[in-house]
Amino acid sequence: MKKIIILIAALFLVIAPAAAQKIDYDGLELTSGKGVDSNLRIAFPMFFGFSMPLGADSATFPQNKFFQSFYYGLEMVSIRFSAPSSPIEFSLGVRWTFMDIAFEDTSVTYRPSSEGGFKTVPIIGESATYDGTKSKVHANYIGVPARLYFTAGRAKLYAGASADYMVKGWTKYRNPAYRENCDDLFNRFRASAEVGASYGIIGIFANYAFTPFFTESISKSGVISFGLTLGM
After folding, report:
1. What is the 3-state secondary structure (H, E, C) of the chain?
2. Consecutive 10-residue runs of the chain (232 residues): their mean pLDDT?
């Protein structure tokens, strides 16, 4: 319920100003002497979606709960370059990304071990407070996305790539509530490709990470994420 409230509040903060008046999302215009305009975006593009590991290479790799595995991104700043009267634009920005993966087998979660792989979540006695549906792994990233846009009026198509560094990773489950730091569980670096389309401030995106989500001792599986964008 908390996540739903947060998502609704975020959607309102982005959409409400646009409903009240027309906003120039290209932001502050910076001109150069070489005939190229550089626009610093003052909007904060957001990404809401779901994530799914692909290409799991181990028979013991658990299936994930797709609709409980979330992807959220906030682009804190993005500089856009465009030649005069050209439909082609290029942008370079800084983005914070949050990802979590929930598993179908609610009795397990990944935890680092010398043997690799995952361990069973310890249930203390017959505790009625244990909630396996909350068993997840989380990772936060800071990254630099670069995109090439084709624009036609308010419509945009784009393709791009991103290099990300994992800031923090952990596992989470309820007994009644527990979170364990485990940075070593995940790959520190994440390289991904992204495509998307938007009209006005609303759009769709798909993102695929070529680098494994976990360390190779666990799985070489990449992760695909897709969903909605606001403010692109």
Report:
1. CHHHHHHHHHHHHHHHHHHHCCCCCCCEEEECCCCCEEEEECCCCEEEEEEEEECCCCCCCCCECHHHCEEEEEEEEEEEEECCCCCEEEEEEEEEEEEEEEECCCCEECCCCCCCCCEECCCCCCCCCCEEEEEEEEEEEEEEEEEEEEEECCEEEEEEEEEEEEEEEEEEEECCCEEEECHHHECCEEEEEEEEEEECCEEEEEEEECCCCECCCCCCCEEEEEEEEECC
2. 48 45 42 49 80 68 77 87 81 91 69 54 45 73 94 92 93 66 84 95 94 78 90 80
